[in-house]
Design a protein that fits this description.
18 strands, alpha+beta, elongated, 17 helices, single chain, Beta-Lactamase
């Protein structure tokens, strides 16, 4: 339904509402009820203003029928007419109160002409209302179409404008203003030449002239605008000419689409393609694509030239002919498995062309349909000929080097075994003269029980020296023993070993007050006998060098370092100067005077030999008077990825 203008007077507004009345918009019971009410009212008025015999009984009923038709439509008008005729014939035709007629003929014709005239009136009103309804519907559709066109123009995602032939703007939508950065008011005062890039203006004006001359009806092209902020905006512009019925140019329609993002993408794509070609050239790569339906292999972006391939397009038969016969079965087998998705396609094989043999590394990824069937493949191929030649040379050198290392190792092993045997033999053979010296010294002492003075002192020094010599020989034999034999790794409980050894030391020297702290459940995979000797040496050292410490403490702990176990034996005893630590693990080298602490200097050298045989490392930290810490590992340091 059309709306009434707000500026209309109240009388005009009421008349407009009456003119726009639509019976079908209201309930049928309401419309028919109003028709009955109007008819009864009309009959009542007629009887009130004149007696029944006065005539003109249908005058007020005609008005009621017309009003009922206007309010309720055709059916309501016909209901009013029928009801009015019934009541008039009963109440206003003698004999009154019945449907008996004194003059039936006159009554018939009077009723007949009343029906005809009322039907004509009601039909005319019905036709008028229908025409009015159609007119209003057409008006509403016209207004909606106009609004849709205006919305399309104003809300379009592309810039739109109507301009006069001379260039003045008729109307411009907001999107066009946003593209060039000006307000609508600023645009109305400008010509499109004012913000068109100077390099694109000539082409624009030339195409416009062709359009005005009738050579073309419209034209489209890419052009650049100068944005209000100064930067360039790329746009795709379509210009259409609208002519008058006489054929003369009327106005121009411009449709402007911002393609700056597309241009940026195209430039980035060109840059990427250029960089890709450069990368291919630097890396010696060629990209290729295979169509599984046709069996054609095509190199991309001319990359076949980088590798010197004879062509950019190959059939499957061409590639088979170029493949080295020794590599052909392996390449075919892997290709078939990769096409089925059973294995990745990553292979090195040889191609022969140009009279030479080339090694290539080929990789591919497959595009598959909804059923998992390969429809195409995209891959790269790299010339690795130089690398393969270098690998072959390295293999030859490695083979030669391994042979030389084997010979050297055999010679070194023989020399080492000979040295070990010599050391063992020397140490063993030295025991015999020592026994003789000790025997004669003992005999002299027994034969001369009254010996005293300087002679007894010399005899005692001979006995002590021979005993010292025996201990040194035992140390040499120990070192020789720990350097030989097969390493047997088994689970070893370091906590249990340390506790047992310290209890043995304490029972041997009950007068000592030593507190020990052993971290429980320290387990390691190592040779049990060697680890027993290692712990014996380290803990005995800690026990010995805390002899002069009033509140001695010995501890065994473990921490993780670089994903491996590191064990530490610490004490708060005499310690040593780290400046002299270089001699710490050398055989028979000691950092304290013999009158301070007894020993041969063989324990730490033996400990180092045991740790190294396990592939670990032994480190020491100390400070004079503050104790010492010996930390060790019994496995090789893991390799970093």
């Amino acid at each position: 339904m059309t709306s009434t203008p707000p500026s209309a007077s109240p009388l005009q507004q009421r008349w407009q509402r009456v003119a726009n009345w639509q019976p079908q918009e209201h309930s049928i019971w309401l419309r028919h009820g109003v028709a009955v009410l109007l008819t009864l009212l009309a009959v009542g008025v007629r009887l009130a203003v004149a007696p029944p015999e006065a005539g003109g009984r249908f005058i007020t009923l005609t008005l009621a029928t017309a009003l009922s038709a206007l309010y309720g439509g055709f059916l309501a008008g016909m209901l009013s007419m029928a009801l009015g005729m019934l009541l008039a014939n009963i109440l206003m035709v003698p004999p009154y109160g019945s449907l008996s007629f004194a003059n039936p003929t006159a009554t018939f014709w009077l009723n007949f002409w009343h029906v005809v005239t009322q039907f004509a009136v009601v039909g005319a009103i019905h036709l008028m209302q229908r025409q009015n309804r159609h007119l209003r519907e057409a008006t509403v559709q016209l207004q909606q179409s106009k609004k849709q066109l205006e919305d399309t123009f104003e809300q379009a995602a592309t810039g739109m404008a109507h301009s006069e032939i001379g260039g003045a703007w008729i109307r411009v939508n907001q999107r066009y203003c946003d593209i060039v950065g000006y307000t609508r008011e600023e645009m109305q005062r400008m010509h499109f030449r004012d913000f068109t890039h100077p390099d694109d203006l000539e082409l624009d004006m030339r195409q416009l002239k062709r359009t005005l001359d009738g050579e073309i009806a419209h034209y489209s092209f890419e052009k650049r605008y100068i944005h209000r902020l100064g930067h360039v905006v790329w746009a795709y512009v379509t210009i259409s000419l609208v002519r008058k019925p006489s054929g003369e140019p009327d106005y121009l329609i411009a449709v402007v689409q911002d393609i700056s993002a597309r241009k940026t993408t195209e430039q980035a794509l060109r840059t990427s393609e250029h960089l890709l070609r450069q990368a291919h050239a630097i890396a010696g790569l060629a990209s290729w694509r295979a169509d599984m339906a046709t069996g054609r292999f095509v190199t991309l972006a001319g990359s076949h030239q980088i590798l010197g391939l004879p062509s950019a397009d190959f059939s499957g038969e061409d590639l088979l002919a170029l493949t080295h016969p020794d590599d052909l079965p392996r390449a075919l087998s892997l290709w078939k498995r990769a096409v089925k998705g059973e294995a990745p396609y990553h292979i090195e094989y040889r191609l022969r062309f140009g009279g030479e043999e080339h090694w290539f590394l080929v990789q591919a990824e497959f595009e598959r349909d909804a059923h998992g069937r390969a429809v195409s493949a995209l891959g790269v191929i790299q010339d690795i000929t130089q690398r393969k030649h270098a690998e072959m040379e390295i293999q030859q050198l490695n083979a030669s080097l391994e042979q030389r290392i084997h010979h050297r190792t055999e010679a070194l092993k023989a020399a080492y075994d000979e040295l070990e045997s010599y050391s063992y033999a020397v140490a063993h053979d030295l025991r015999s003269p020592l026994r003789i010296i000790n025997g004669f010294a003992q005999a002299l002492h027994e034969d001369h029980p009254g010996m005293n003075g300087e002679s007894l002192s010399h005899l005692q020094r001979i006995t002590a020296a021979s005993k010292k010599m025996g201990e040194l020989i035992d140390g040499l034999l120990k070192l020789s023993q720990y350097a030989r034999g097969e390493l047997q790794r088994q689970p070893v409980n370091l906590s249990a070993i340390a506790t047992r050894l310290l209890e043995e030391f304490a029972s041997a020297e009950p007068q000592r007050q030593v507190r020990w702290e052993i971290e429980p459940h320290l387990h390691v995979m190592a040779d049990p006998a060697l680890v027993e000797a290692l712990m014996q040496n380290l803990l005995h050292n800690a026990w010995k060098y805390t002899a002069n410490t009033p509140q001695a403490v010995i501890s065994l702990r473990m921490n993780w370092q670089d994903s491996q176990q590191r064990f530490s034996v610490s004490d708060n005893g005499a310690g040593f100067d780290m400046a002299r630590a270089a001699k710490l693990f050398q055989p028979f080298q000691r950092l304290h005077m013999p009158h301070e602490f007894s020993g041969l200097g063989i324990g730490l050298a033996t400990s180092l030999r045991i740790v190294q045989r396990h592939g670990g490392e032994l480190l020491a930290t100390a400070e004079p008077g503050q104790g010492a810490t010996f930390s060790f590992t019994l496995t090789a340091r893991p390799l970093l990825n």
